[in-house]
DNA sequence: GGCATGATTTGATCTGCATCAAGGAAGAGG
DNA sequence: CCTCTTCCTTGATGCAGATCAAATCATGCC
């Protein structure tokens, strides 16, 4: 039985929270934060643990504080596709919906800041700061899903791998309010199988393409779960789209 | 130059609107509807016309009244993926964003109920009925995008075609507040190429699979743009997922 | 250390769909 | 009626990535 970190950090204050500036609560005022503090609790999961099963009831919603999780959908015969990637500051759960439509699995050790559903929904109805931010985040997620549709529908295996690394690098940089450039290192808290499920490939193809990119010097592997990108712009070219990621300036 | 139908219908009243019960304005009260009437105007486009180009400014948002449109994304080398399908009652545009990220093309003749951006955003900030409904619709769209990810990542060409027909049948039935069952006819306001762009296939594969389904009696074709589904449940089985579409009862 | 367990790599072969290449069909405009 | 043009179908061939099969590597446990 894994050691549950939940109660170690159960009373961390919002004003020192690392995701404060990007999470659902980003626009909240002091009094709203106080309300949120009253309904929140932390939970931790280890890599591989299931956080929610599709079809189960959920009595909470949550923000990812650290770590990574995947939303996963399945066909009856077992074919699996990841349909959402939860990184720090992302939101888990849908207000107004009790039953989870997707299975959520921790792909690395993860810490969630959970809010009890009922009080959260109540506050959501009161606070335009909260509901406005949630709308904004949902629209961003929809944009990300649409980029992902392009990836799954039209990119080659090699481009898919490169795209995933670009996404992870951008997200990691965004938390530090930067953008990736030149030499850059990324944590890769995913097994080859999880990557395959994300990219609509098999794990063998993922392995082959990763090693091909490595052989050609586009990436360097430090162990299996850490990637160094010697030239970020070169990786972006491999990813197939030349967009700058839509970030300003 | 096509004949512009825009001004023929420029003053249709909201209370006789066919999409009233499902569009952004669904939860609005009489006074909010009056505000909306003041900022709205209708525009029509013919099949194949571009409604918005990616990168262009948009000074309106809109609801689809009738017809169909596709949001489309492209890689520099021309590979094209549809990333959104706009059917009656769907919402076009993102509040707070001026520049369109995707090209929007009418795939059939289409009528839009447009709202001037600024007044709409103002009302959105005032009205929880409006913003709440928009959040709800955005979350539904995200769910649809996630089903689509599964389709693109893991389904065979045959399953993809069947899935598209199931989606169109469900949407057509939903407008009449029903669910498809038994024998059912669907309009297919898409060229083979548009279907291919939706499904991440080539138009040749779409054509072959459509005719294969026809040969096997799963579908019947009335002309090229109308499909009769003799047994809806059989089509759902071909689509690969046995879900009931998530509708209650 | 020795041994299980799970993750990853690597190789050989197969196959579904893309690609390339002609034709048909059906409507629009002269 | 003829001739574009656009859309669709059908056939032949090739290839990227799936599938099947075995090592290799790591890690934790006894």
UniProtKB/TrEMBL annotation, chains A, B:
Q: Which residues form the HTH crp-type domain?
A: 155-233
One annotated GO molecular function is: DNA-binding transcription factor activity
Question: Pfam family of this protein, just one?
Answer: HTH_Crp_2
Q: For the Cyclic nucleotide-binding domain, which residue ranges apply?
A: 24-141
| InterPro entries, alphabetized | cNMP-bd_dom (IPR000595), cNMP-bd_dom_sf (IPR018490), Env_Response_Regulators (IPR050397), HTH_CRP (IPR012318), RmlC-like_jellyroll (IPR014710), Tscrpt_reg_HTH_Crp-type_CS (IPR018335), WH-like_DNA-bd_sf (IPR036388), WH_DNA-bd_sf (IPR036390)
Q: Which UniProt keywords apply?
A: DNA-binding, Transcription, Transcription regulation
| Gene3D superfamilies named among the record's database cross-references | Jelly Rolls, Winged helix-like DNA-binding domain superfamily/Winged helix DNA-binding domain
Record-linked CDD domains:
CAP_ED, HTH_CRP
Gene Ontology cellular component annotations, sorted alphabetically: cytosol
Q: In the UniProt record, does the keyword Flavoprotein occur? A: no
What NCBIfam families does the database record attribute to this sequence? Answer: TransRegFnrLRhodb
In Swiss-Prot or TrEMBL terms, this protein is called Helix-turn-helix domain-containing protein
The scientific name of the source species is Paracoccus litorisediminis
């Amino acid at each position: 039985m894994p050691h549950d970190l939940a109660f170690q950090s159960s009373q961390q204050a919002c004003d020192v929270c690392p995701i404060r500036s990007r999470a659902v609560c980003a626009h909240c005022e002091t009094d709203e934060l106080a309300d949120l503090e009253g309904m929140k609790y932390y939970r931790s999961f280890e890599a591989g643990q299931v956080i929610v099963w599709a079809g189960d009831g959920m009595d909470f919603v949550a923000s990812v504080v650290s770590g990574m999780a995947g939303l996963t959908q399945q066909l009856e015969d077992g074919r699996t596709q990841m349909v959402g990637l939860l990184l720090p500051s992302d939101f888990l759960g849908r207000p107004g919906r009790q039953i989870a439509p997707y299975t959520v699995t921790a792909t690395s050790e993860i810490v969630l800041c959970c809010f009890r559903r009922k009080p959260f929904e109540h506050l959501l109805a009161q606070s335009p700061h909260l509901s406005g931010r949630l709308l904004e985040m949902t629209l961003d997620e929809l944009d990300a899903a649409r980029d992902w549709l392009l990836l799954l529908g039209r990119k080659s295996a090699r481009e898919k791998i490169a795209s995933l690394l670009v996404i992870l690098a951008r997200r990691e940089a965004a938390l530090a309010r930067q953008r990736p450039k030149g030499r850059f290192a990324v944590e890769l808290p995913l097994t080859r199988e999880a990557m395959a499920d994300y990219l609509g490939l098999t794990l063998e193809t993922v392995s082959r393409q990763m090693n091909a990119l490595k052989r050609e010097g586009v990436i360097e592997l430090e162990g299996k779960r850490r990637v160094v990108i010697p030239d970020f712009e070169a990786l972006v070219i491999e990813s197939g789209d030349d967009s700058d990621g839509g970030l300003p300036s």
